[in-house]
Amino acid sequence: MAKAAVKEATFQWQGTNRDGARVKGQMEALSDALVKVQLRKQGINPISVRKKTELFGKRKKKIESGDIAIFSRQMATMMQAGVPLVQALDIVGKGHENPAMGEMIGEIRTEIEGGSTFAESLAKHPKYFDDLFVNLVDAGERSGALEALLDKIATYKEKTEAIKKKVKKALTYPAAVIVVAFIVTGILLYFVVPQFEDLFVGFGADLPAFTKMIISLSQFVQTKWWMVLGILIAIGVTHVQCHRRFRGYRRAQDRIMLRLPVVGDILNKSAVARFARTLSTMFAAGVPLVDALDSVARAAGNIVYEEAVLQMKDQVSTGQQLQVTMAQVALFPSMAVQMIAIGEESGALDSMCAKVADFYEEEVDNLVDNLSSLLEPLIMAVLGVLVGGLVVAMYLPIFKLGSVV
């Protein structure tokens, strides 16, 4: 049975040194008794030892994929510098800004001290360390080249995290602006339009049709805002639940996203880059192609590509070349297929996959930058139509009254 991880705490202490002078400080330890033992070894007579309490406490942040990427690079650097594994984990865990990540690293260190291998310890946290990560660490431990494999893992994590951030930026920016535009429109309909409505009551003339439509919409928002909010919440909750529970729903969503103009191109090229980067990393570590494709499928990040790679794996296992299977699934650009073909024929598949990944990662960078430039005038147009339309609707009756006078 594995030993339960015991969490260290920070203790504040006061005491007197050999000269009788008053000294104080803080120390991390498992208990106050251990703090007193350490102080006496240093020639300090402890007077008081108490656990440090913070006013607001450290928020236990969620462990993100970026934390795993940083951990990978830190461990690779430590191991290449010749720091023993347990000591490296101790240094990285205590120095991590995310308390939750530091706690998990402490658990991994405790497992290793209890006799588990590094790979076995990581495998006990499958939410954060996938099969690819664990398999590469296991291969490094078996071959005696753990530091080299950790460096490959760190590079892979950094590259995939960078491209993930690019894709997230491409999707988040327009969505955030549109949400803000609708919030502003709702505020105008709820607070501003009613002021004009009271003004129009004394006109004694028919209002323009556009103004009547906006006033009716404003009245609906004022009286039925709870219904609108409820519908929006219901749509959001339904989407989240369906996305979690139904693979067919996620498949349909991913397929639609891949076909969108501009955004679909970014998603396709990022999937190709991730495929090539993962395959290069696995193949360079000596993992057989069929096993590598299994890990590549799970790292695809898109169900359409995941199912295509699993189909390719089945065909490769029967003896077909990778380039042939890539052409058959009809998802990969011809350039990627041709470069993989050259890699297979020359026996340098890992390096060719790395070049494919580099090329398409750069393509994604350029597409995201271009998307930002394209979206700015489109967003201004949307804001102009929504906000400007409300302003025009409110001033039309005033213009009409002025022409009559």
From TrEMBL:
Can you quote a single GO CC term?
plasma membrane
Q: Which residues cross the membrane?
A: 171-193, 225-242, 378-398
Q: Known PROSITE patterns for this protein? A: T2SP_F
Coiled-coil ranges (or none): none
Which part of the chain is the Type II secretion system protein GspF domain? 71-194, 275-397
InterPro entries per the UniProt record, alphabetical: GspF/PilC, T2SS_GspF/T4SS_PilC_CS, T2SS_GspF_dom, T2SS_GspF_sf
Lineage top rank: taxon: Bacteria
Give the record's family classification: Belongs to the GSP F family.
State the protein's name: Type II secretion system protein F
What is the source species? Abyssibacter profundi
Higher taxonomy: Bacteria, Pseudomonadati, Pseudomonadota, Gammaproteobacteria, Chromatiales
